[in-house]
Amino acid sequence: MTDHVREDWYLASLGRTLIWARLRVLEAGTAEVLDSDGNTLPYDSEDTARAALFDAEFVAWDGLDEDDALTRGFSLHDVQPPQADNDDALRPLMVQSLGGRA
């Protein structure tokens, strides 16, 4: 699907578990979030989608520095947003358990 103009990743942490969310800004100016349950949630704007993510205590992946990551229990060198060829393959990767201490 190429009807999006940008894709950003967000994460939340719960203990040693990372919970990912993907925000896509669509050509029409609306946005959608693929959440950790595999649901695609529509929003009327990028700002509304971001606000919902921040309200749910997600942080922008591209805004994290190493100190922020270490505070959350992982190193930026050891973690990357999930990748897959399509959303069906991506869904089971949206929740990531971390091993030993970062």
Describe this protein's structure:
The chain is an alpha+beta fold and 102 residues long. The protein has one domain (4-94). The protein has three helices and six strands, in the order E-E-E-E-H-E-H-H-E. It has helices spanning 46-55, 66-71, 87-90; strands at 4-14, 17-26, 31-34, 40-43, 59-60, 95-97. Strands 1, 2, 3, 4, 5 and 6 form a six-stranded antiparallel β-sheet that branches. Strand 2 (17-26) and strand 3 form a beta hairpin. The radius of gyration is 14 Å and the shape is globular.
Features:
about 100 residues, 6 strands
Query: Distance between the terminal alpha carbons, to the nearest Å?
Result: 35 Å
Give me the strand/helix succession.
EEEEHEHHE
Total strand segments:
6
Q: In terms of structural class, how would the helical and strand content be classed? A: alpha+beta
How many domains, in number, for the residues?
1
What is the 3D form?
globular
- Count of alpha and pi helical runs: 3
Report the mean per-residue pLDDT as an integer: 91
